[in-house]
Amino acid sequence: MAFLNHLRVEKGLAKNTVESYGRDLRKFARFWDQKKRELRHVSPLDLREFLLLLDRQKLSGRSIARHIVSLRQFFLHLIREEVLSSNPTENLESPRAWKSLPKYLSVEETQELLEKPEPSTPLGVRDRAILELLYGSGLRVSELIALRLGDVNPNEGTVRTVGKGNKQRLVPVGKMAVAAIEKYLQESRPALLASRPSPWLFVSRRATRLTRQSVWLLLARYGRLAGISRPVTPHLLRHSFATHLLARGADLRSVQLMLGHADIATTQIYTHVAGSRLQEIYRRHHPRARSA
After folding, report:
1. Using a CB cutoff of 8 Å and minimum separation of 24, what contacts does 264-271 make?
2. How far apart are CA 275 and CA 153, in angstroms?
3. How do residues 185-231 score in pLDDT, each as one tens digit?
4. Is the pTM of this model over 0.85?
5. How confident is the model at residue 57 (pLDDT cuts 50, 70, 90)?
6. Residues of the chain by 3-state class (helix, strand, coil), percent to 5
7. Could you tell me if residue 229 is left (phi over 0), alpha (psi between -120 and 50 degrees) or otherwise beta?
8. Cβ proximity of 84 and 116 under 8 Å
9. What mean pLDDT do residues 274-289 have?
10. DSSP E strands, 121-269
11. Catalytic residue ranges
């Protein structure tokens, strides 16, 4: 391989080091051969898939880190040789760094949380709409509090929001969230505003726009009322939104668009959860999944 000759002759690396590079890259070559695609089409998502494969093979963290170094040097070499124009190993991390994410609620915990706001008070109706929208759309808290009245289209079941990088996107919202928002607009918002004007969708009892902190506090309170042991945050609901979609068969690209991720590799952190769910279903239902 030209790259290994480059390491040996031009870089002057030790024989053992070059052999380690060779072993790592041959393992990647076997993985890539199964893709039946040209090397110039490799993406960060492909590399993460390869690293997850190594992780499932119980390789040590040190070994996976060495594979990352080998891949990074190899693709830098391809860029210098003008085989590739961009480096897919940028920001590549070990799967060990992904394992703590994402934390998410179970479907049962989510349902318990959504039912905690008091349905007979203006604040309770508002809070139910907030919870339903966060879970039903995956919005960031900054996106939620920036919503204006005209950003919600109940007839189409969509919300228009502006995310990171000032990028606008249209997010689908389910019937439960739409119903909760409509109830809030008809019953709760007029009571909270008391004839005072406001362009914002969600308002406080003082008719001002909600703050990030106020949303965090109300979620934490309802989490405690629901008996959920870990802190409930806006991002926990965002994680739950994505995880539940993927676990029920949604494709990664669609979830990426709904979350507003610029790179699909960011969305991929949720796939290990869906994969675990599929393995559980397989073990439970396939006749050859268990020993006799």
Report:
1. 264/45, 265/43, 265/44, 265/45, 265/48, 265/91, 267/242, 268/45, 268/48, 269/98, 269/101, 269/102, 270/102, 270/239, 270/242, 270/243, 270/246, 271/246
2. 34
3. 999 999 999 999 999 999 999 999 999 999 999 999 999 999 999 89
4. no
5. confident
6. 60, 5, 35
7. alpha
8. no
9. 59
10. 152-153, 158-162, 168-172
11. 140, 164, 235, 238, 261, 270
Is the CB of residue 47 less than 8 Å from the CB of residue 89?
yes
Tally the C-alpha atoms within 13 A of residue 15's C-alpha that lie toward its C-beta: 0
3-state secondary structure of 15: helix
Residue 232 confidence (pLDDT): 96
- Chain mean position to CA 109: 19
Bridge partner residues of 148 (DSSP) = 200
Structure-block tokens of residue 236: 């926990």
Measured between alpha carbons, how far is residue 285 from residues 23, 281, 282 in Å? 38, 6, 5
Residue type, 163: G
Other beta carbons within 10 angstroms of residue 88's beta carbon come to 20
Pick from 135, 89, 97, 144: nearest CA to 114? 135
CA distance 191 to 210: 16
**What's residue 288's pLDDT?**
63
Using the structure block, give the residue that is written with the tokens 């690396």: 13
List C-alpha distances in Å: 193 to 122, 151, 178, 189: 10, 19, 21, 6
